[in-house]
Amino acid sequence: MDTLVQASGRDLYDSDEHAWLLHQIGALRAGRLRDVDRDSLAEYLQDMGRRDEREVMRRMAVLFQHLLKLRFQPERLSRSWVLTLLDQQAGLRDILGSSASLAAKAEVLGGAAYQRGAGFAAAETGLPLTAFPKVSPWTVAATLAFEPPEPRPPTLYRRKRP
Q1: What is the Cβ-side half-sphere exposure of residue 111, based on CA atoms within 13 angstroms?
Q2: pTM for the whole structure
Q3: Residue 110 lies in a domain
């Protein structure tokens, strides 16, 4: 008997999630509902939903971190900051644009993400956490619409030769 069939339930889920997932897909497509590991499948799908929420929160935290750094230390704006802002905005637009339910939760997720982003901004800027607003001054729509300024070209200096 095929090892995959022998270990198709919780044991396979715990030992080889990818093989378990392929088995579940095969069973569902073939209409073999008795072979579906319902409890583990429900847990897996619930974890996927949480993972999507975590991804939104992670991207929003990074976005808030950089918006706060820009607001409180604009003289330190770099091309890297701008690219990070643009990357996080594009990623969030993709996620929220493809999931109406996540888009509906975005403001709530943004509240927790702001706190995390403010903590990161405080650590990176050296400013106390109390220097930043307690709640986000930006809505999700405002963070996605924000157009970062162009950073100033770096000032090059030349060493004087003796």
Answers
A1: 3
A2: 0.78
A3: yes
Rounded to the nearest 10°, the torsion over CA 92, 97, 102, 108 is 60
Domain shared by 23 and 81, yes or no:
no
Whether 138 and 79 map to the same domain: the answer is yes
* 63 and 25 fall within a common domain: no
What is the pLDDT tens value at each position of the chain, 162 positions in all?
Answer: 344 444 557 788 888 989 999 999 999 999 999 999 999 999 999 999 999 999 999 999 999 999 999 999 999 999 999 999 999 999 999 999 999 999 999 999 999 999 999 999 999 999 999 999 999 999 999 999 999 888 776 665 555 566
Domain hosting residue 113, numbered range? 50-145
CB 102 within 8 A of CB 120: no
Tally of domains within the chain: 2
Q: Which amino acid is at 90?
A: A
